[in-house]
């Protein structure tokens, strides 16, 4: 029996281990952690015949492992993985493993720095409204290997819930059935470890500096994402993104979108999507009014155009598209309205894990607002974010390991209405106090949690962080 080694005991690693086991591999899963939640999952998997090593790091041995499967959060250039590849051990990502089981099914793959999650969720909603089984997977919804298990004869059609506090679900996942389409949100981490993944339709939402501590250069980050689009026969690009627009000559057969109208559209208007007289036009036809999408922020017009164009390229009828758009509820953790307390709206934008996403979030809410920001800081250009804070934020409450650095940056531009509160618990409490005072003085109606940071200093992921914010707000 061939042996496989899976790194990471999160949702993706668990699904990969189960799929390999179903395919006849002898499977070992490792995780460097050793929490109670991990030990609980260890017992569950070992009862299924899958070995689990906690507090363990990979030591490549071609006599003990013929394949290594890597979870998305594991660095692809990890020295142990480079050693494994040099030893001839097949090393792939969880998404690549899923693709090998699901490649006969057409995929829509969505990548980009920002906008991926909303576009993915809306695209899946449209395909489902057309009567198709089209699960959203990858960075949202199911792990891709959970979907693959439906074709591998997995007897439990509903994926097992992750252990408590390890990978909290943002919503209840429905039982899976054999899919007609796969709608996948795919990060650069997943692309670089998935060399043969070739979706039928690939979307690139935006491109700005992000994950440079992992990918090192902007050019390398771009090339990783470009490799996915290059393998796709149908490519959709956001033509309003300055960087993507500047690379148009590399994509002569691509379909483009533009919220700025037909005159701004790159390529053939009959193959693209744009806004005209308040309508989304795709492949030359009026599809749905832009204001049918009940989500704040002008950036969501672009997300709408890309999802609509993907649906039309897949042959979905206009009526199904319009119905899905009109009834789309939005996505958790992205400008998600949690509650209104004493006239103040509390909004969860935990998925804003970089400056560009946080700037878009703050720009989307009415001024003045109280902003809660901070976490584990990333490299990037914070200029536009700081400018929007000056324009729209009545106060900024800073949390996490980035708090001191963010305070210095705010002070350097002459912004003084900030406080270091360290934790999200204290931030919500303080925002309620400030909000009441500012509501009476200035008409302030919004508290926005938009961190501009990764979550890993205090939380396992941005979902856990956003769920904590939700709990704190509802407790008010």
TrEMBL record:
<dbReference type="GO" id="GO:0071555">
    <property type="term" value="P:cell wall organization"/>
</dbReference>
<keyword id="KW-0133">Cell shape</keyword>
<keyword id="KW-0573">Peptidoglycan synthesis</keyword>
<dbReference type="GO" id="GO:0008764">
    <property type="term" value="F:UDP-N-acetylmuramoylalanine-D-glutamate ligase activity"/>
</dbReference>
<dbReference type="InterPro" id="IPR005762">
    <property type="entry name" value="MurD"/>
</dbReference>
<dbReference type="Pfam" id="PF08245">
    <property type="entry name" value="Mur_ligase_M"/>
</dbReference>
<keyword id="KW-0132">Cell division</keyword>
<comment type="function">
    <text>Cell wall formation. Catalyzes the addition of glutamate to the nucleotide precursor UDP-N-acetylmuramoyl-L-alanine (UMA).</text>
</comment>
<feature type="domain" description="Mur ligase central">
    <location>
        <begin position="110"/>
        <end position="311"/>
    </location>
</feature>
<keyword id="KW-0961">Cell wall biogenesis/degradation</keyword>
<protein>
    <recommendedName>
        <fullName>UDP-N-acetylmuramoylalanine--D-glutamate ligase</fullName>
        <ecNumber>6.3.2.9</ecNumber>
    </recommendedName>
</protein>
<keyword id="KW-0547">Nucleotide-binding</keyword>
<keyword id="KW-0436">Ligase</keyword>
<dbReference type="GO" id="GO:0051301">
    <property type="term" value="P:cell division"/>
</dbReference>
<dbReference type="InterPro" id="IPR036565">
    <property type="entry name" value="Mur-like_cat_sf"/>
</dbReference>
<keyword id="KW-0963">Cytoplasm</keyword>
<dbReference type="GO" id="GO:0005524">
    <property type="term" value="F:ATP binding"/>
</dbReference>
<comment type="similarity">
    <text>Belongs to the MurCDEF family.</text>
</comment>
<dbReference type="GO" id="GO:0005737">
    <property type="term" value="C:cytoplasm"/>
</dbReference>
<dbReference type="Pfam" id="PF21799">
    <property type="entry name" value="MurD-like_N"/>
</dbReference>
<keyword id="KW-0131">Cell cycle</keyword>
<dbReference type="GO" id="GO:0009252">
    <property type="term" value="P:peptidoglycan biosynthetic process"/>
</dbReference>
<dbReference type="GO" id="GO:0008360">
    <property type="term" value="P:regulation of cell shape"/>
</dbReference>
<dbReference type="InterPro" id="IPR036615">
    <property type="entry name" value="Mur_ligase_C_dom_sf"/>
</dbReference>
<dbReference type="InterPro" id="IPR013221">
    <property type="entry name" value="Mur_ligase_cen"/>
</dbReference>
<keyword id="KW-0067">ATP-binding</keyword>
<feature type="binding site">
    <location>
        <begin position="112"/>
        <end position="118"/>
    </location>
    <ligand>
        <name>ATP</name>
    </ligand>
</feature>
<comment type="pathway">
    <text>Cell wall biogenesis; peptidoglycan biosynthesis.</text>
</comment>
